[in-house]
Write a structure and sequence with these properties.
Helices cover 53% and strands 13% of the residues. It is α+β, with helices and mostly antiparallel strands. It has one domain. Helix 1 packs across helix 9, helix 2 runs antiparallel to helix 9 and helix 2 runs parallel beside helix 10. It starts with a helix and ends in a 13-residue tail after the last helix. The C terminus is likely disordered.
Length: 215
């Protein structure tokens, strides 16, 4: 992403207040999910400098008009929350795959869980002991990379982008690139002066795999 565009975006984001600032922050990370390059992203929202937790509590039910994008609060402690934002159709397909179900069984999940039941179990795992390794399956990380991360304890990876790569580097690079391109399109959208909430509304009417035209 061009440095000039990033600088302009950061300056513009700092001018937002309240809901717009929260929406801009979330949508930047959510852009690859909006374009179905990833099934989900996980964000940590806390009350450090810009009161993101409080803003989230006040506005969390107003963001997604499409019926395709949902969120699930995995863990909430005081003034901090871990939220999984997901594309319901994409993530449902992943959860229905036999290799995903077999992998999740290793961590105590029932092989016939529906997506809501699997999310509930994931939240329980978070509350029991922090971020569990199987969350990667919900985020669309290749299972071989998750297994490699567990075996190597996060070391000896081939590359590191949105996750640490242990298997197919070429395929990972494609996803990394497409995800960054999606974020760049959102940055350009904001730099043109449009409000961040409009980006979510634009993406509420298109089909998976076909990105809307946003210059």
């Amino acid at each position: 992403m061009p440095e000039k565009a990033v600088t302009s975006f950061v300056k513009q984001r700092q001018q937002y207040r309240g809901r717009d600032y929260l929406c801009c922050t979330i949508t930047y990370h959510l852009a690859p999910v909006l374009e179905t390059h990833r099934p989900a992203v996980m964000l940590s929202l806390g009350n450090d400098r810009r009161r993101l937790f409080t803003l989230w509590e006040e506005n969390k039910y107003v963001f997604f008009p499409s019926g395709k994008l949902y969120f699930y609060e995995l863990m909430k402690t005081g003034k901090h929350v871990f939220v999984l934002f997901y594309h319901i159709q994409y993530l449902t397909r992943i959860m229905q795959q036999e290799n995903t179900r077999s992998f999740l069984k290793l961590f105590g999940y029932d092989g016939q869980l529906t997506l809501p039941e699997a999310l509930k179990q994931l939240g329980k795992r978070f509350r029991q002991g922090g971020c569990p390794p199987e969350v990667g399956a919900f985020l669309g990380i290749p299972l071989d990379d998750i297994k490699g991360f567990i075996v190597h304890r996060g070391k000896n990876y081939k590359a590191c982008g949105s996750w640490k790569v242990y298997s197919d580097l070429q395929q990972a690079d494609i996803i990394f690139s497409r995800s960054e391109e999606a974020k760049t399109r959102f940055v350009n959208f904001i730099n043109q002066g449009y409000p961040p909430g409009d980006y979510l509304r634009i993406h509420s009417s298109w089909e998976p795999g076909v990105a809307p035209t946003v210059k």
